[in-house]
Amino acid sequence: MTKDAQFALRRVIEKYTKSTRFALICNHVNKIIPALQSRCTRFRFAPLDAIHVTERLEHVIKAEGLDVEDRGLAAVVRLSNGDMRRALNILQSTHMASQQITEEAIYLCTGNPLPKDIEQISYWLLNEQYADSFKRIYEMKTRKGLALVDIVREVTMFVFKIKMPSAVRVQLLNDLADIELSFGCNDKLQLGSVIASFTRARSA
After folding, report:
1. Which of 12, 59, 115, 204 sits between 20 and 30 A of 165, alpha carbons compared?
2. How far is residue 109's CA from residue 163's CA, in Å, rounded to a whole number?
3. Residue 183: pLDDT above 80?
């Protein structure tokens, strides 16, 4: 909802506040203008547990008669991050693009890197020389249309799963956080920074 639309809604709320109650739902409260926030009582809800998202999705899948693989369902739950609305949007979008909802179809539809791609990228970052790693990752990124911000986010989560000294992990995560905060620069420069961070971690 644009700011102009929110200001228009504020006037509607003021006019009908005696007879009507309005419920606004959002993921980012900072996108709601202060004039609306001041007229609301704020309730914060934590993300849903994976088991609850799964149960609800299974109900929807059965009711709609969708063809969803188990790995596909797990992918929807993972990408939703506890947001039921996002989970349903992913499910609907993927169904519109593919009659059979598989893990690969979901990742392709949402534009997120496949887990196997992240494992491959992580292998290059941890084992290949700088130039070779840059060439292979950039080629995969271009060929599959991946966004660097998504690659960095997934690689960051992968760092938590692999064994390395705590001090090295902390420094690597700190470097990746700095890179993620500075998105908007040249992609090649950003990718070079990611690879340099891993190269430095390997030599530590």
Report:
1. 115
2. 32
3. no
44, part of any domain: no
pTM above 0.85, yes or no: no
Pairwise CA distance, residues 88 & 77, whole Å? 10
What is the length of the chain? 204
Is 191 contained in some domain?
A: yes
31: nearest Cα among 53, 70, 5:
5
Give yes or no: residues 121 and 199 share one domain: yes
Report the domain count for the chain.
3
* 32: amino acid identity, one letter: I
d(CA 100, CA 94): 9
Residue 25 contacts residue 83 (beta carbons within 8 Å): no
Mean pLDDT of the residues in the chain: 89
Element (H, E) at 101: strand 100-101
11 burial type by CB count under 10 A (0-12 exposed, 13-18 middle, 19+ buried): exposed
Residue-wise pLDDT tens digits, 137-160: 999 999 988 888 888 888 888 888
Give me the residues paired with residue 67 across strands.
100
Residue 74 token pair: 């797990």
In angstroms, rounded to a whole number, what is the distance separating the alpha carbons of residues 187 and 179?
Answer: 11
